[in-house]
C-alpha cells in the first residue's frame, strides 16, 4: 500500500484509499459530500499564524518547513494520531493526505508525507 499526497480540488479524485484532510481550514467550494473524506485532522495543519506568515511564498518554504515541524514537535499528540491512523490504514489500503493549496510541491501535506515516510520507514514512491 502507498502513502499519497493529493490536492483536494484534483479531478478525478483518488477515491481508492483512506482520505485525510490535513488543512486547518475547510477548502473553499468543496462540499463535505464531494470531499469524500474519511477523516479531517485540522489540528495537524499549520497554525493560523504560521499559515498567514508563509502565505504560499516559495522563498519562505524552507523556514516554513522548519517552523511547521517545530509546531508538530511541540504538540506531538496530533501528529502521533495521524501517524497511528496512517500506520493502521496502510496495512489494508492506500492513504491519501489531502490539502487545498495551489502549489503541489510546497505545502504542509508534502512535509507530513515526508515525515511519515521517514518515521514509519516507508519506501519513497
Structure characterization notes:
InterPro entries: YeaO-like. This is Uroporphyrin-III C-methyltransferase. It comes from Limosilactobacillus caviae. This protein starts with a strand and ends in a 6-residue tail after the last helix. It has helices at residues 32-35, 48-54, 61-74, 76-89, 108-119; strands spanning 3-7, 18-21, 39-40, 95-99. Helices cover 41% and strands 13% of the residues. It is built from five helices and four strands. It has a four-stranded parallel sheet, with helices on one face. Helix 2 runs antiparallel to helix 3. The protein has one domain (3-119). The protein has 125 residues and is α/β, with parallel strands linked by helices.
Give a concise summary.
It comes from Limosilactobacillus caviae. Pfam families: DUF488-N3i. With 125 residues, the chain is α/β, with parallel strands linked by helices.
| Helix content percent band | 40-55%
Helix count equals 5
Cα-to-Cα separation, first versus last residue: 11 Å
Can you summarize the main beta sheet?
Answer: 4 strands, parallel
Give the topology string: H per helix, E per strand: EEHEHHHEH
Q: For the largest beta sheet, what order do the strands appear in spatially?
A: 1-4-2-3
Decide which structural class fits the backbone: alpha/beta
Mean pLDDT, rounded to whole units? 93
Number of strands: 4
Which value, in Å, is the CA radius of gyration?
Answer: 14 Å
Protein name: Uroporphyrin-III C-methyltransferase
Organism: Limosilactobacillus caviae
Pfam families: DUF488-N3i
InterPro entries: YeaO-like
